[in-house]
Every structure is written in structure tokens, then in C-alpha cells.
Amino acid sequence: MTALTQNDQELLAAIRQLKLHGMAAAIENQLSNEFAYSNVDFTERLMEAVQAQQDYARQRSYDNAIKKANLPWDTTLEKFSTFKNRGIPMQEYHSLAALKWVKAPVNLIIIGKSGSGKSSLGSAIAENAIRNGCSAAFWKTHDLLDTLVSFTDHKSYERMMKRLSKTQVLVLDDFLNGAVTRQRVDALYNVLVSRGKLPVVVCSQIRPEGFRALLIAGAESRCSKNDLPMASIDSIADRLTHPAHLIEITGGSMRELEDNRIA
């Protein structure tokens, strides 16, 4: 390897000061391997450095978006599609990856038994969206709603709602697993209204035709009949299921499969 001169080091320091770290790494590689680049013209070397910076910026943007999305699983659609006996045809994975449901837009409702992989698939769907330039967020439904309910500062609440309203893909995991309260119903209604036509990915053990009845039953157990938020419940059920695409995961618990693999 070629030793870097003082001028080389000063050049690299200046490039890094401009936060062009991908370009700096590429140029340092070129300077350290001068023999390999002796017959490469200036324009080609510069283009390589520019492309390295573009790749660096894309990777950093992806990493930041993944961290911000709070994905619980390091899973992609490609990885999930290799899990056997999930009952999902390969054509379905291709359709999900193409993001036509985001452009349509159409909600996704993922149902299955506990441990079947609903959360993992929801996380993989969000990762694919981010990889293809969309913003995404993954929330346990009750955690999101309780966070919204707990705000005492109106400005903080508005910032949170604004972020949710602009997130292109919102995954609501463990939907209707927690207690249904008037406050949670109101919060969920506000989230869905604020998002307009942006799609929601719902992961639940409850089939979509049962959403309304379960919301009513849960609300009835915690508030008087006259205080039932029926308009909000009807709107929630309608907004989530029209339009919506159902994905039903079959097969045994993936936790059991993992336990057997370890054993």
C-alpha cells in the first residue's frame, strides 16, 4: 500500500470535515493503492468516489429510518418467505415487496395464532417499505394509544400526531390484545383520521369482521351505555377494513420451531 503524504491527509481531513465520509473512504483507498489506480483517469476516479458517497448516504438514511421505526425483529420479506408452513404463497410476498398496496392504498390485516409470526411479518413489511424509500413505524397498539393518552403537553401531543399522520406505513401490532377503554378508542380514532388514506398494517389474532364487536364489548365493560363511543368504533372498523387485504398465517408457533432448532 502507498503511504499517504501530508497533502493526502489534509485533503482527507477537509473532505471529512464536509461530512463526506463515503467519499473520503473511497479517495483514501485510491491514494493508498496508487498502483492499482495508475491507469484510471481522473473523471473515473472521481465518479467512483461520488458513487461511494451516494452509497454511504443511502445506507445511513436506511439505518436511521430503521432505528426510528423501532422494528422489533431483524427480519426481511426475503427471510420470512423461507419459513415453511406459514400458508403464504410466494406470489403474495412479491406483491408485498412491490408496495402496490401502499400506492393503492390498501390496509393489510395479518391474522394468525399466537407465535405464528404476525409481528415478524409486520416488521419485515415495514423494513421492505423503508428499504424502498418509504417511512415506517412499528408500534404495539396499546403502547401507542397509551402514549397518546398520557400526554399532558398539547404541543408534544401535536408533534406525535403529526409524525403519525405523515408516516407512510404504520404497523399496529397486537391489535385488540389490550383492554379497550374510551380513551384508547378515542386515541385510535384520532390516529386513523389524521392518517387519511395512508395504509395501516394490523397484526391481530382477531379476524377483521370481529373488530367492531370486540371494540363494543370492551368499551361496554368500562363505560356506561350512554357513553359508548359508537361513532368512533364504527369509523375505526370501517377505516381499517375498507379497503383491506387479509393475510392469514398458518402453521405452528415459530417459537416452538426455534426451541426445536436449539434443542
Layout of helices and strands:
Layout (H helix, E strand, L loop, with lengths): L5 H12 L3 H12 L9 H28 L7 H4 L9 H9 L1 H4 L3 E5 L6 H14 L4 E5 H10 L3 H13 L2 E5 L8 H14 L4 E5 L6 H10 L9 H12 L2 E5 L5 H9 L1
Parallel strand pairs: 1-4, 1-5, 2-3, 3-4
Helix pairs in contact: 1-2, 2-3, 3-7, 8-10, 9-10, 10-12, 11-12
Characterization of the model:
The protein is α/β, with parallel strands linked by helices. The chain folds into 2 domains: 6-67, no CATH class; 70-262, Rossmann fold (3-Layer(aba) Sandwich). Helices cover 57% and strands 10% of the residues. The chain contains 13 helices and 5 strands. The chain has helices at residues 6-17, 21-32, 42-69, 77-80, 90-98, 100-103, 118-131, 141-150, 154-166, 182-195, 211-220, 230-241, 254-262; strands at 107-111, 136-140, 169-173, 200-204, 244-248. The chain has a 5-stranded parallel beta sheet. Helix 1 (6-17) runs antiparallel to helix 2. It is elongated, with a radius of gyration of 24 Å. The two termini are 48 Å apart.
